[in-house]
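Throughout our pipeline, every protein is held as a single compact record rather than as scattered files. The record that follows is passed on verbatim for readers who wish to inspect the format.
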Amino acid sequence: MKNKEKYILIFLLLIILVSRLYHINVPPLEIEESWRQADTESMARNFVEYDFNPLRPNLNYDGPLPNIPALEIQVTTFVIAILYKFFGYHYFLARMVPIIFFLISCVYFYLLARKYLSIRGAMLSLFIYGFLPLNLYYSRAIMPEAGALMFWIGGIYYFELWAEAKHLAIKPAFKLAIKPAIKPLVLSMVLFSLALMTKPPVVFGAIFLLYICFRYFGRQWPARPEVWIYAAITLGLALAYYVYSASIAEYKFSLGITRDIILQKALTAFYTPESQMFFLKNGPRAWGIIGLLLTLAGVFTVRKNQIGLLIWLGAMLLELLLIVAPIRATYYLIFALVPCALLIGNFLDRLLALPGGKVVSLALAVLFMMESIAYVKPMYTINETMAVQKKLVEELTVPSDLLVVGSLDPCLLSLSGRRGWRYNLGMYSYLPQDPYQELGFYIEHGAKYFVPIQGKVYGDDNQELIRYIEQNYPKIESVQGYPIYVLQGIE
């Protein structure tokens, strides 16, 4: 890599870093996936305060600790926990972990882009990758997506590095400045298996790995034993982790999502009105309208030696169809953005070569940035109701108090550092199905306070439950409209 190329790359990485410093020390009170961020951050705190074992994460809801769920591997949370242990609880530390992971993913993304695009095309792709709306927000959210991107793109890059070296039987011409101490195929196995353990939908990237095999080895690729060993170890490590996680979990609701939603609805979910509305709403929030149009344009500017970009895009369209459509979680769109950024960068590179292309490309880049900021800005909005509720809980209770919250969203428990239960969900068979008996069950198991969210209870449309609680339990209301009810005497 020439010095000029390195300097431009470093400059782009600095811009990407600076763009993610807004709200760097704000708690997970932003309206975009606040509960998911609060969940992640609370697990990091539980590592520090309860069990410093990365393979035994604990959540703050569904009762007192221990409270181990069947979850993906908690790399992001454990790194945050290490920082918390040494430097104390600061939200900027929690946000810097995904930011750093994303910056590393940018380096891998650029190195991989150079395998298919020119230097200029790779630089443009990196710019797009860094500023697509969903990437701009979620790469600094306290969530595991940035880590998954780092593992995933890194795993694919090292796999291609191995295939290229095997094909040419020489050292690859373009590589990292520091030669890997471990062979690329081993690095790829480790990183891709971690990607699978962090976010299982990245498995669709294996289709692109098959293309890489065909690209370098042709139809003879099945005869290479390394490919089968790679597949067995990579998938085996991921499967072993999920079997282990399920075996120690007290709560297996995440497995229920796979069983009851994905496996049952994968082939039909996309055709439902709910899924189609999800994509119509969140597609622009992820790509931007300009990003979507540029992706479409990029599809038609792919040359024969770049066909792998279309194969990767096709693989991620399958992820959207089979995984995102039934789950309808916005952050699962982030993996499809990777091949799209490559296609857009390639299109802009071709556009620049045309007469007047520089002016058009600059205009598109400016409009893209403006639109991206416009889509992301509302995501930073603070949930003022939750902020008030969190403050009151912290003032009126102590960390050892068990709470019952009248919400499907566990955000309040995680944000306030309290533990307890969510009320009136009807999700768990071990709980009484009658809501009055359910509340009694929580009291018997130590619940001291009931906290409705701004005086409301989830599923209590006729307000029958909140009236019952109002009539039977003492109320503390230091802020009008935010009552907290005492379920049993405080010593």
In short: The chain has two domains: 3-379, 384-486. The beta strands are 402-405, 419-422, 447-451, 475-476, 484-486.
